[in-house]
Amino acid sequence: QAKRAGGDRIEIFRANMRNERSDRLVLESDLRRSLERNEMKVLFQPIVRLEDRTVAGFEALLRWDHPKLGRIPPATFIPAAEENGFIVNLGVFVLERAAIELAAWQRSLDVEPPIFASVNVSSRQLLRHDLLHDVKTVLARSGVLPGSLKLELTESLVMENPEYAAQMLARIHDLGAGLSLDDFGTGYSALSYLQRFPFDTIKIDQSFVRQIATGQTAILRSIVRMAQELGLAIIAEGAETEADAQALAELGCDYAQGFAFGEPMSMLQARQLVGAAPEAA
Ligand code: C2E
Ligand code: MG
Ligand code: MG
Ligand code: MG
Questions:
Q1: What are the φ/ψ torsions at residue 51 (nearest 5 degrees)?
Q2: Which residue is closest in CA terms to ligand 1's atom 35?
Q3: Is residue 120 lining ligand 1, measured as CB closer than 6 Å?
Q4: Dist CA 186 CA 205 (whole Å)
């Protein structure tokens, strides 16, 4: 019927559709070639111990430096990569880079507990059984200390298929990887339920940290208390100011991550920050 209606309007519509589709195709083939073209960068954001403000570890965060479009944030390309399956390649890439870097830090720093690195895992990666093999290989090859390479998973990801997730996470945990519950408070937020998963750390979502400025710390306080009772380490995300950092320390958070302590930075900057010897890359 659309065709019969005729007129210029429809031609324009079709032309737009064609453009949109080809844009998507270009981006998709660009994405698939991004790794071989060396366009993907892993940045590291410090996670700081609140009691003494030392760097306890880093979160690895992906960036895509597209030759024409410039730097593309993960929120833009991760969903596309999830959809077309390329997330699996990206996931292995980030895991390897983070583990190699972590091992280098650990070789030149003799601190106890050892410095850690954490890597985000998305749905398609967890559902894919090979994740176990990838984690095992990376742990063995890199030689990182046990428990110091951590995977971050969100509640909603885990709750997509709790039975399967529980099995996978138990096996990943047995391999010697740490497990962090990311963006806590944005999903189902049933810590008691999530207790049956082998998480060692929860990361409180930055939306709760934002509430510090308005004095609404009730939820934050109760999340911290529950996590403490469950024996989980607590990282607050999105600490942007010194006031945030102080309030989080007083509430009993162990660690904080946010612009107050450092933005996601290059591998070299991360090495400088922790005082690790520069090694040939
Ligand atoms: P996330 O895992 O919750 O990572 C924290 C995000 O908060 C990062 O955004 C970080 O740059 C940002 N952030 C850190 N401190 C502050 C702060 O003080 N204030 C504010 N406003 N934001 C802060 P980024 O790097 O854009 O990453 C966004 C999301 O993309 C991540 O959220 C994660 O879910 C996903 N992502 C990033 N890298 C990867 C990856 O390698 N694999 C997968 N599967 N997902 C990734
Ligand atoms: Mg994360
Ligand atoms: Mg997070
Ligand atoms: Mg997030």
A1: -70, -30
A2: 74
A3: yes
A4: 7
Q: What atom of ligand 1 comes closest to residue 94's alpha carbon?
A: 41
Coil, helix or strand at residue 43: strand
Residue 272: the pLDDT is 95
- In this prediction, residue 11 carries a pLDDT of 42
245 burial (CB, 10 Å; 0-12 / 13-18 / 19+) is buried
Distance 231 CA to ligand 4 centre (A): 23
Ligand nearest to the CA of 238: 1
Ligand 4 ion: Cβ-proximal residues, 5 Å cutoff: 183
- Strands (E) in the chain, as ranges, are 40-49, 55-66, 70-72, 116-120, 149-154, 178-184, 201-204, 233-237, 255-257
- Residue 101 Cβ inside 6 Å of ligand 1? The answer reads no
Distance 120 CA to ligand 2 centre (A): 5
> Which pLDDT score is estimated for 18?
53
Point out the residues of the chain with pLDDT beneath 50: 1-17
CA 61 to ligand 1 center in whole angstroms:
6
pLDDT given at position 10? 40
Phi, psi dihedral angles at 101 (to 5 degrees): -65, -45
The number of beta carbons lying within 10 Å of the beta carbon of residue 80 is 15
pLDDT of residue 15: 46
Residue type, 179: L
CA of residue 4 to ligand 2 center, whole Å: 51
Q: Is 185 helix (H, G, I), strand (E, B) or coil?
A: coil
Q: Angle CA(99)–CA(44)–CA(271) in degrees, nearest 5?
A: 80
